[in-house]
User: What shape does this take?
Amino acid sequence: MLKPLTPSLLIAPLLLGCATHAADDQRKNPPVKVEQVPMEQAGGFECAPKPVQYAVGKIATQELATELMQKSGAMKFRWIAPNMAVTADYRFDRINVSYDSKMVITRISCG
Assistant: This one.
């Protein structure tokens, strides 16, 4: 006689569809991490995007991210990957750097 399946066995295949893969994570996030710049080095609290527009078209790197933070006066940094959902909250002290699938910076804004 067959035993009925337990609910956990029925749910397990559904949960596997929610798992992420390392390759997916690498496409969504650049292989760099940016640390917050100390306030004394940042040059202020409010982000200014105009002085850093020269970086549009360049490859996203940690060194460039640190430079953008310093030159923009931002205290926080956010990479924005292609097709990535981002919060709509405005932060006057954050610089947002969007890049494409080839890690080329496509847009720089504050907020």
